Q: What sequence folds into this?
């Protein structure tokens, strides 16, 4: 498999000199299978350049998987150029909100309502097939198997695991490890601890043995102290999870929009130093726009 990173930021695109090295676009990842299957994970602003590239290749079939519909994961979708090609078919997968009942089709259609965008989704030239996903699904795309898992976030967020014959890529989307809201002398504390442990086991199991793990690592430990419940992980929580899951290569992503290139490198270096263990370790890196990984 081949993986290319097109967007790495959380929350908001931040182009400019301070972010030029790691990139200012929001989340978008391209995965290509051995038989040229084209999978796109999330439609943040990075999907704009990816779309132009794909049209140039003459692509006919694309599979877009949306983790959730927070802006930073869909805000480039309206300008995804293959939408405007009449010889392209796009399968679009995403979760249905369990509370409102809104599907991925409903939400992406709303995003292109005439109040927000000049062309409406029902009028684009490409053939679109919408598919709702939920945790535990298994979707076969030629030689690839895509599995789904619900990662803990402030909205329903489906992470994806793409397995080819002998390689695997896991993308969490946005994810915060569950916390116990009860004080330790509360009678509900211990049953909540058990449920959190079980949830962690399942989450680690989904990531197990990934050749490439792309994981939400938005915050430093210090920042996280005042951001509990905002739905994101830290570099340290990602390092320990990746080790527990025995992942091989790990990309930290969902960089905070306020972070400059220099600051990113500084917090990365500090987190790696703080968590150093002896012996053979995994390969950790900051996700960077334009980065290509062959597996
Ligand atoms: Zn996000
Ligand atoms: Zn989110």
A:
């Amino acid at each position: 498999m081949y993986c290319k990173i097109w967007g790495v930021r959380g929350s908001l695109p931040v182009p400019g000199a301070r972010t030029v090295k790691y990139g200012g676009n929001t989340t978008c990842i391209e995965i290509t299978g051995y038989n040229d299957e084209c999978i796109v994970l999330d439609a943040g602003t990075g999907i704009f350049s990816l779309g132009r590239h794909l049209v140039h290749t003459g692509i006919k079939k694309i599979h877009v998987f949306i983790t959730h519909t927070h802006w930073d994961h869909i805000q480039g979708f309206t300008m995804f150029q293959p939408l405007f090609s009449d010889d392209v078919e796009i399968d679009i997968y995403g979760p249905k909100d369990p509370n409102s009942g809104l599907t991925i089709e409903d939400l992406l259609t709303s995003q292109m309502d005439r109040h927000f965008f000049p062309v409406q989704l029902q009028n684009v030239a490409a053939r679109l097939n919408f598919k709702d996903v939920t945790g535990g699904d298994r979707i076969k795309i030629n030689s690839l198997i895509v599995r789904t898992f619900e990662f803990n976030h402030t909205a329903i967020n489906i992470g994806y695991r793409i397995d080819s014959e002998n390689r695997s890529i896991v993308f969490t989307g946005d994810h915060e490890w569950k916390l116990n809201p009860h004080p330790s002398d509360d009678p509900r504390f211990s049953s909540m601890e058990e449920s959190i442990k079980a949830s962690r086991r399942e989450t680690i199991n989904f990531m197990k043995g990934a050749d490439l793990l792309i994981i939400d690592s938005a915050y430093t430990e210090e920042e996280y102290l005042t951001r509990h419940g905002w739905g994101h992980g830290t570099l340290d929580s990602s390092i320990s999870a990746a080790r527990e899951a025995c992942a091989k290569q790990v990309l930290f992503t969902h960089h905070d929009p306020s972070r400059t290139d220099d600051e990113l490198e500084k917090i990365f270096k500090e987190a790696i130093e703080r968590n150093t263990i002896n012996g053979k370790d995994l390969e950790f890196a900051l996700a960077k726009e334009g980065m290509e990984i062959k597996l």
